[in-house]
């Protein structure tokens, strides 16, 4: 099993939206960064995901989801009415992919970015989301990082 962190703006799609989705499952579409896309293509069914709220008053980890469906072409890339439309995408050779995730649990309190940063010199020193300049919406998390963050809940 692998571990991941996926960022979303709660004003666009937050953990409460995932909770309200049918079977608490939704596609994670709209990723338009090649490295984030490549990470999504590595995801396997059953991998665990920290659901991270970004660009909000208290950014941080809001809960846990599980990958329900492995990477498949993101249909929004072909929809000219979508905010995620990409005129360069070819249906015969799609450039953008998505996965389906299912809510495992919402945390009672968000583990804030400030809280995570308190451990940036120690247990979380290599965590990608804490690196200066990182803006990726999908990043891997090590097993030890996952375990430590779970202990903060």
UniProtKB/TrEMBL annotation:
Signal peptide: none annotated. Residues 2-151 form the EVE domain. InterPro entries: 5hmC_binding, EVE_domain, PUA-like_sf, THYN1-like_EVE. Pfam families: EVE. It comes from the Bacteria. This is EVE domain-containing protein. It comes from Steroidobacter gossypii.
